[in-house]
Amino acid sequence: MQIKMNGKRVKVKKGETILDIAKRNGINIPTLCYHPDLKPEGRCRICLVEVNGKLVTSCNTKVEEKMEIFTNTKRVLEARRLNMELILSNITYTRKDFELIKLAKELGIRKIRFKKHVDNSKGRGPIEIDNHRCILCGRCVQVCQNIQGINNIDFVNRGIFTEVTTPFNIPIKDSPCTFCGQCALYCPENAVRERAFSEKLIKYVEDMNLIKNRNKVVIVQTAPAVRASLGEMFGAEPRTLVTGKMVAALRKIGFDKVFDTNFGADMTIMEEANEFVKSIEKNKNLPLITSCCPSWIRFAEETYPFLLKNISTCKSPQQMFGAIAKTYYAKKIGVKPEDLIVVSIVPCIAKKFEAEKPEMKSAGCNDVDIVLTTREIGRMIERKKINFSKLGDGEFDEPLGIPSGGGAIFGATGGVTESVLRVIYEIFTGKKLKKVNFKQVRGFEGIRDTEIEMGNKNIKIAIAHGLGNIRKLIESGEWKRYHFIEMMACPGGCIGGGGQPRPTTWEIRKKRIAALYEQDKKMKIRVASHSPAIKETYKEFLGKPLGKKSEKLLHTKYEKRKPKYF
Amino acid sequence: MQILRKSGWAGFEKTLRMNRKEVIKKVKESGLNGRGGCNFPTGLKWELMGKGVRYLICNANEGEPGTLKDKFIMEKNPSLLIEGIAIASYATGIHKTFIYLRGEYSYLKPKLERVIKQSEEYLKKINLKININLGAGSYLCGEETAIMESIEGKRPVVRQKPPYPPEVGLYGKSTCVNNVETLANVPLIFLGGWNNKLELYSLSGDLKKPGVYEVEGGIKLKQIVSLTKPKTEPKIIYFGASGGCLPYKKFENLSMGYKSISEQGCMLNGRGLIICGKNRDIVELSKIFTEFFLHENCGYCTPCREGNFRVWELLKKIGCRKGRKSDLNLLQKLAYHISDTSYCGLGTSSTNHLKCALKYFKGEFLKLCK
Amino acid sequence: MKKLNLLILKYKKEEFNLLSLLEETVKVKGFLSFETLNYISKNLKIPLAKLYGMASFYSFLPTAKTGKYVIRVCNSPSCYLNGSQEVLETLKKVGIGVGKTTKNGKFTLELTSCIGCCDSPPAMMINNKVYKNLDKTKIRNIIKGLK
Fold first, then answer.
1. Is A518 an active-site residue?
2. What angle do CA A389, A392, A395 make, to 5 degrees?
3. Is residue A115 part of a domain?
4. What percent of chain C has pLDDT over 70?
5. Is residue A470 situated within a structural domain?
6. CB C28: neighbour CB atoms within 10 A?
7. Cβ of B249: how many Cβ atoms within 10 Å?
8. What ipTM was reported for this prediction?
9. Domain B2-191 adopts which CATH fold?
10. B111 by DSSP, 3-state: which?
11. How far off is chain A from B80, nearest CA to CA, in Å?
């Protein structure tokens, strides 16, 4: 089939949208509510083009025979500009880096002739929806309903009173929200966003360079997925790892020590692998389900309490790190646990909620004091006027900073499984692992499964990412067939987490995952149990995996919970 | 009135003696067009229906301000409507029909239910079930795909077309949507002596005798208005809220018909005419019409949601003599912009009235501007 | 609760659809409270957000407490041309303001779009009953009759 686009003949296939074709032919059509992962709805009316004398949205109009499309006529440009003006007229916008502001510049908007009229904002909980900024593009609603299957938010009311919110405006923290934060990740404008829960502490951390006679020691841990995406906020390509620059920037902000959560991840692997071995040997509570994802844990506690006995009792890497820091490390450097502020930088919003859980207090106070998302730390770096792209490479501090490759790939879907496999291989077979790459568990499908032979055992593994896929796996009853299941609430694993830089699409997720595997490849130590730092910690402090001390510090309990309002 | 003729299921009995194709052919030949507003040939619509499970929806969500012909039929001659539904269902091989009755007419529901019960023996012959679904106060639910969303229990947002209802409709099945007046005319075709040209017009506004009139299409505007005894000399004729408006004096000899009206940039939607007398202020009227769309738009797309609000703001400003000429320019731009870029039919027609008002009465707007 | 269960049962038997279920619920309960909608959501396994999103769209499905009588005055052009503003003024004089519920919880006044009574304006609906050709005395009598 042939159509005409801007006067040129173009070959097209049936079923393609006008936007697809324009992209393929290098024609730029600005979009706002469109997102490659979602179904185009045509709400914002920015991607207008002229087809046979009529204006249509290019994102959801399929090509037909004899179409004559113009993407740049005066009529099109004016209509786009006016729509943008109408959108902007009703919201507050401040920051530079969001899609909306970029787009407004691109469309050439100088003045807005209308005044604001919306006056309501709903906060509370780790996520907040700010109606001052919402442009009703509907991405968050689509993600929450169709991809994650949580159905916690929807459009309410109609006409000019339309807004996105929870039913009856109940506070998000009391709703069945799992805090996966995908809604915030997909928001083109900072309307759905993470909430800084203790602004005082954050202020302290941000200003610590200025505070004299500081009596608190502030340490920071960075999650595996952050280094693969932080660079994007400063113009780097999605595949770039910015580990060194990130460490340098954190030092410049003034953190006393910069550690790697990969260390916590290694510890999680040790504990989880041993727990799995025990379960297999006793043939009890199988399958074992991973527990690193706090959003998944909240989902299970609320929706599938019958699964709680199957979930590994291990804390997440962040909390393990926090527990070790507040006990082992605090003692080592001679600081009271209250005076050690543990900041963690994560790609996740649910981690904010996890850090505040009452059971996460191994030394009497919160194990992790502040949780910042990748976006938040990026903005902090910006506010501090640190020229990120020009920074040299910094190094993590010891001893909690030397990880294995197993911890590094935690951020990718299938990563946890692969790391655990590396450790249990040696336990089951007694041989040294030669082929460290378990490529069977890598991939991007929502639910994957595989079987791996180890010694005389045949281990059945399933991996699910995205809450929608998790729900599918559980409700089909398929989950019973496996020995080990990895569950991650965000599509793509942590690299696609709710706190990651915007925009995040599947293309970008794949690049970030590739970066993590590359990092793993370059590491000397690829198996967690070989890491000297881990060995030392167990020798000096914890004893052995699943020992008395690690049971107390590194493991937790789950209970059936009900959201306050349901 | 023709539409008040009692058929007593004679028309239906006649169709049962024909096969389905013959029924459709006869309807096609009769020249019956959709009376809801799109003027689409009814027989052709039936012919386009797909296979498998299919549904018929009788659109009784008559929400256009100034239109009350469907209510008139359902009040005065409901059995004709039910018979029409039966014939349509027979012709298209449908076994389940929904009557989507607007919530404002809920008092008609018991009456319709009684009629359906009384005609059970006929409905059984073609194994037809008729459900009455009440709306809950939404003008948008008069759009065929919005009705489907509403019946399915979702927010009634218009679906993107294509696919059209005969391909993918209610619950994903092939669906036919017909207006009340269309269906009520169907039995009359088979009774014989049916006049295709007779249509129902609802007239209201500054009139001594407002109401529903049955006249032949093509009648002059002047003639139809004189039937209703205007209180003062008419100044503006609105074709419902979404159809636009015309100055009466200039167009009093215009003949009423879909084609002739649309040539003047208006739409003869539900054939509801609102006649405004000579002392009416066009800016004030435009504001009232805009308020209607402010209340009824769904909030889905930007231009209709935000744009209509801005239009209302500007009209308010101009109305209290605070507007400038630049405001008027912006108003005009917005009016065309909204109808150009909105998502659904409600949006694209929501500023018709304003476009026409600015075309024919710009002077009055200018007078109020600084 | 019994009545609600009955309605839910009817819905499950496909005697009517979701919109009708909510409408019938309003008739029984007066309005759609959080508890009511949550109960329906749990029973039918329809997410609450979707139910609320849908209910809040329609003008006839209140999600907050309303008066015993909901007065809906037609504010569309035909009635406007024939004195719907005076209807509102009269109601105000009786103590019923637009968008408000009276203190005794008896009346709620809302504006509505055309209710199809353009042939006998101005008109209003009280609950499901339509009152046409209104004037001052008629309105006063109607309100008195409801007290």
1. no
2. 125
3. no
4. 100
5. yes
6. 13
7. 11
8. 0.92
9. Rossmann fold (3.40.50)
10. helix
11. 36
